[in-house]
Amino acid sequence: MSRVFANLHLRTKFLHSFVLVTAGLTCAALLVVRHTARVQMQREIEEDAHNAILTFQIVQRQHHELGDRERALVPNQPGDAASEAVHALPFSAAFSLGWGRHSAYQKK
Q1: From CA 84, how far away is CA 86, in angstroms rounded?
Q2: H-helix segments, the chain
C-alpha cells in the first residue's frame, strides 16, 4: 500500500513540473508576441505620421500654386480698390463672393 502512495507522489511531482514548464513557455511566448506587436505598432504609427506630413505638404504646395495661378489670371490694377480688397481675402472667401472661375460663365 505504501508503494501506491509513493507512486502517486511521483506522479504529482511530474504533473507539477509539467504544469510549471508549460506555464513558463506560455508566458515567454506571450512576452515575445507582445514585444513584436509593440514594435510593429510603433513602426506603423511612425509610417502613418510620415505619410500624413507628406500629404499635408503636397496639399499645401498645391494650394499655394493655385493661389499663384489665380493671382496671375486676375492682375491687380493699381487704384482699383475692389480688386485690392478681393486679393486681400483668402481664396475661399473671394470665391464665395463670386470672384471665382465660375463667375465668367454666369449669365448677367
Answers
A1: 5
A2: 2-73, 81-88, 91-94
Count the neighbouring beta carbons within 10 Å of the beta carbon of residue 85.
11
For the chain, how long is the longest CA-to-CA vector? Answer: 118
Cell representation of residue 69:
495661378
Which has the closest alpha carbon to 72: 92, 90, 85, 87? 87
Residues 22-53 as b or e (16 or more Cβ within 10 Å = b): eeeeeeeeeeeeeeeeeeeeeeeeeeeeeeee
What string of pLDDT tens digits covers the 108 residues of the chain? 566 666 678 888 899 999 999 999 999 999 999 999 999 999 999 999 999 999 999 999 999 999 888 888 876 655 555 555 555 555 555 455 555 454 444 444
C-beta neighbour count of 56 within 10 angstroms = 10
